[in-house]
Amino acid sequence: MKRFLITFVAIAVTCAVAAPVHAQSGRTLARLFWQNEDDATVRWADLTKNSEGYHLDEKQIESFPDLNDDEQSLVQMQADQGVMIVGVHDDAKGTIGSGWVGIDAGVKEIPHGDHSHWNYASPPSVLHTAIDTDQGNPAHVYRYGRSFVLANDQKNGFTIASSAAIGSSGSSKTPGQAATFYKGGNGHITLAVVEDTVAYATWIAFAGEDAGRVDVVGLGPNRDRSYHIQCPSGGLHGATVNSGKAFFAPADGVCWVTVDAEVDDDPESVAVHHLSLGKDADDKPLRTGAFTNLGKHVLFTAGKTDQAKLCVIDASASSPEICELAVPVEADQSLGTPIVIRSAKSGPLALMFAESSESPDSDQLWIARLDPNGDKDFSDAALVSPIDVGLGKISGHAGHHDAVMLPGGRQLALTNPGDGSIWIVSLSDYSVVGKVPVEGTPARLMVIPSAG
Q: What pTM was estimated for this model as a whole?
C-alpha cells in the first residue's frame, strides 16, 4: 500500500462580510441553488459582486412543489446542460409522496469561439414533477455522462433520465415519458453506470445469501441481459465507474470488477478484486460509504479520529492500489466525502468537511492539493491547513456543509447550515473573502454554470 507525503502549509483567514442584501448592483459571477432544509425547498440567487462585497438576492423557484417538511425531504441534486434534477424522499417508505423534480436553471450558454458567455435573463422554472406513491422513495441521485440516475429503493430498481428528456417532456407528461425504470439492486441502492451500456446496482444486505450482491443490468441494446455477482462482504453502500472498472464499498474495504460492456460474462467467472483499508482499534475492517471521480482517479474517505484518511485509486492501473493521506480530525469529527475540483492556480483539489454533531462550532474544511508538482500522479498529495467554517446542523443525513467551485476556478462557495450563511473562499490563499446571510438552513449547494 502506498503512502502520500504529508505537508502542511500555513494560511491566513480573513473575512469580508457582505453588504446588505438590497445592494445588488454589480457583476454576476454565477447562479447558485441551495436546499433550505427548514421548509424542503430549493432557493436560488445570482451571486453578484461590487465594491461593497458579495450579494445574493434570495428567491424561491416558482411552481416548486409544496412539500410537507415534517415528512418529506430533498436528497441529492445533479445538473446537466442547464437542467437540474432533485430527489424527494419521504419518511414512510414512499407512501406519502416521493420522486423527483426537474428544473430549468434559466442560464443559457452563448458560445464565443474558444469560450462561452452566460445569459442569466430568465428565472429558474419547474420543467417536470414526478412525486407520488409509486416512485420508490429515492435516496441517491447520480449523474453519469448525460444521464441522471435515481435509486428507487422501495421498488428494487432505478430510474434513468436525461436533461434532454426532462426538458422536452413537459409538466403534463407522465413520469414514464421523461424517464425509464429498470429492475436491479435492493434496499438502500447505490449505482455505478456506464451510460447506455450497463448498470451495477448494489444490495444493502449485511448477512445471508444476498450479502455483497451486485446486480449487473443491461441498458440500451443490452436491456434484456442481466446477472449478479457477489462481493466478499455485505452492507454495500457506494458504487462508481472509472476507466473501465466498477468500484463498490462493502463493509470491508473496496471491491472492483472489470466492466462487462456487453453484459454477457459468465457470472461465475467474474473476478471480484478486494482492496483492504486496514482495521480500526477494535480490529474491525475499515470501510467507506461513497466515491467521487476526478479524471482517472477514484477518491473517498475512510476511518475516524486518528485513522481518518483521504484515499485515492488510479483506476487506469491494471492492478489498482490505494494511496492514503492521513487527515488529523478531532475525536468528535467525521470526515465527509471528498468534493473534487480543478482550481485555476492550485490544480486538482479534494475538499473534505470535518464535522461534529456534538460541537458544530469546531467544523473545518480540509483541502488536499492532489498534484502539487503537476505530473498527474497524485502520490505526492499534501494537505494545507484547515479553514474554520461556520456551524453545521447535523441530524441524520441532513445539516451538512457543501461546497462548489465558482466559474473561473478561483473561488469556492460553501454553505453553513447552522449559521444560515453562504461563504466565499479564495482558492489563491484559502481565505474567507465573503459571508452572505440567507434564510433557514442552507445545505446542499449547486452552481450554474458549472466550473467543470
A: 0.92
Give residue for cell 441502492: 189
27-67 pLDDT, tens digit per residue, is 999 999 999 999 999 999 999 999 999 999 999 999 999 99
pLDDT in tens, 100-109: 999 999 998 8
Do the Cβ atoms of 430 and 442 come closer than 8 Å?
no
Q: CB under 8 Å to 113, separation ≥6 — which residues?
A: none
Evaluated on CA atoms 169, 175, 177, 178, the torsion sign reads: positive
Here the cell at position 99 is 420522486
Q: How many Å is the maximal CA-CA distance in the chain?
A: 65
Of residues 433 and 108, more confidence is placed in 433
Q: Please give the grid coordinates belonging to residue 274.
A: 478486494
**pLDDT tens digit sequence for 319-355:** 999 999 999 999 999 999 999 999 999 999 999 999 9
Residues whose CB falls within 8 Å of the CB of residue 20, separated by 6 or more in sequence, listed in order: none
Closest CA to 214 of 263, 159, 145: 263
Please name which of 319, 302, 325 lies closest in space to residue 383, comparing C-alpha atoms: 325
Q: What is the pLDDT of residues 344-393, one digit of tens each?
A: 999 999 999 999 999 999 999 999 999 999 999 999 999 999 999 999 99
Domains of the chain: 2-448 (2.130.10.10)
The C-alpha atoms of residue 48 and residue 450 are separated, in whole angstroms, by 16
Residues ≥6 apart with Cβ < 8 Å to 393: 37, 360, 399, 417, 418, 441
Which DSSP helix (H) or strand (E) runs through 163?
helix 163-169
- What is the C-alpha separation between 298 and 290, in angstroms, rounded? 10
What does residue 154 show for φ and ψ, rounded to 5 degrees?
-75, -10
3-state secondary structure of 149: strand
Query: Considering only CA atoms, which of 56, 43, 92 is closest in space to residue 72?
Result: 92
Residue 397's contacts (CB-CB under 8 Å, 6 or more residues apart) are 75
If you average pLDDT over every residue of the chain, what do you get? Answer: 92
- Give CA separation, 414 vs 282, 328, 368, in Å: 35, 21, 16
Distance, in Å, from the CA atom of 37 to the CA atom of 35, rounded to the nearest integer, reads 6
Return the closest-CA partner of residue 265 out of 236, 202, 205, 222: 222
Torsion of CA 425, 428, 430, 435, to 10 degrees: -20
**Three-state secondary structure call for residue 267:** helix
User: How many Å apart are CA 440 and CA 405, to the nearest integer?
Assistant: 22
